[in-house]
Design goal:
five-stranded mixed beta sheet; 18 helices; 411 residues; Helix Hairpins; 10% strand
Length: 411
């Protein structure tokens, strides 16, 4: 435990933050309010630096992201201790069963939690710049993918009301081909009135074979309109054009994110490790690297990674009742990364496939079996990450055979 010159509890807000500072030397606490402006935040941090001569100051804060956290992280003498909001709420309720809540009191509660239970809290140590950049890139890309999916679903739903054939003829609605198709022919009458040579040229430019094209032309000639009501078709066309324009922008943005992620990840110190995992690929390898980070002291064991990511289940035991359930209080994006990686492993790793099949044969559901596989694989990834080693499937299978593991099979 560090010898801190002072302890600070911050209850952050959208416009202002309540701060309580406990001076270790005088054992006195003082409260103040700091506005959510760059000038106010920097002025307060610099005043602490001058007051304590640059000696370390411990700060309890109920978040690990955002403007306030980013500003404080820039001051090396401030040692940040992020506290889970649920833990903070339970700690406060333990002494205020009435449910009373007040921002200055909450800041004092966080301060009290840090002072008395520092040994149970984890100090935040930031990753290097490249890893932190990569984290935002992969998280933002996932957000854009979700947004693209929402637009695709809205577009498909509207096409079903007046031009359902386009869902098949245009191709996947999340592609530029579909955008081009719907921009040229937003209605059945538009494509049926087009020259066959123009339709052929459209499909040929996108590498479709002649037989496939002729089959589509026949479908177009013989198709019947679902509705002819202008009150339905006209607004639908307007919405389709709007969705196509937004999809074009999202497709271009996601492609740019892919380029930035690839460039950033290529220079990452652990890129070779995470690229060696089967099935990781261009998207999941950077996400796995972000999940582990570059601070080797952050995790003391593979179980640490499993618990913090949400892959490890939660055990609830009371009297004769024992319940094992999924862990909900966790970073969802990290858990999703491990879950998606484990799902892909089934087709990439022989022993992972055997392990999954064994779980399913025991009656475990699909997603539960995927989480169990992810739990097992985190142990492998942790060992590689901790020791800076690349993964070798053949070597790992050899070790499994030596131990007599039932999963050391050959595909």
């Amino acid at each position: 435990m560090d010898e801190y010159a002072a302890y600070v509890g911050i209850d952050w807000g959208d416009r202002a933050h309540e701060v309580v500072v406990w001076d270790s030397g005088s054992a006195a606490a003082e409260a103040r309010t700091i506005e959510q402006t760059p000038a106010s935040l920097h002025e307060w941090a610099e005043s602490l630096y001058a007051r304590y001569g640059g000696r370390p100051v411990a700060v309890a804060i109920e978040q690990s992201r955002g403007m306030l956290f980013d500003v404080l992280m820039g001051y090396k003498f401030l040692h940040l201790f992020p506290i889970n909001p649920r833990s903070a709420a339970r700690y406060r309720e333990a002494f205020r069963p009435s449910g009373a809540k007040d921002d200055p009191t909450d800041a004092g509660s966080l301060l009290d939690m840090l002072r008395k239970h520092e040994d149970k809290l984890t100090r935040f140590i930031p990753d290097d710049v490249r890893t932190r950049t990569l984290r935002l890139l992969v998280e933002d890309r996932r957000g854009l993918v979700h947004l693209r999916t929402a637009h695709m679903q809205r577009l498909e739903a509207r096409l079903k009301t007046y031009f359902p054939q386009a869902i098949e003829w245009a191709g996947s609605l999340g592609t530029l081909q579909a955008c081009d198709f719907l921009e040229k022919w937003p209605t059945l009458s538009a494509i049926q009135g087009a020259r066959p040579s123009g339709v052929r040229a459209f499909y040929r430019r996108r590498a479709h074979g002649n037989d496939w094209i002729e089959g589509k032309l026949e479908q177009i000639r013989s198709a019947d309109a679902l509705v002819d009501d202008e009150a339905i078709v006209s607004p639908a066309v307007l919405l389709v054009r709007s969705e196509v324009a937004q999809l074009r922008s999202l497709i271009a943005s996601i492609a740019e994110y892919d380029r930035q992620i690839a460039t950033t990840f290529d220079g990452h110190e652990d890129a070779v490790i995470f690229k060696s995992f089967p099935g990781a690929g261009e998207q999941l390898a950077p996400r796995l690297a972000v999940a582990f980070g570059t601070v080797r002291s952050r995790y003391h064991s593979a179980l640490d990674v499993s618990e913090r990511s949400g892959i490890a289940p939660v055990l609830r035991r009371s009297g004769k009742s024992t319940i094992v359930q999924m862990r909900w209080a966790c970073p969802k994006f990290t858990r999703q990364s491990f879950h998606e990686f484990a799902r892909l492993l089934i087709g990439q790793s022989t022993w992972a496939r055997a392990f999954y099949q064994r779980q399913r044969a025991r009656g475990v559901g699909h997603h539960a079996a995927i989480r169990v596989l992810a739990y097992r694989w985190i142990r492998v990834m942790y060992a590689c990450w901790k020791n800076r080693l690349t993964y070798d499937e053949a070597f790992y299978l050899q070790q499994l055979r030596r131990r007599g593991s039932p999963f050391a099979c050959v595909a």
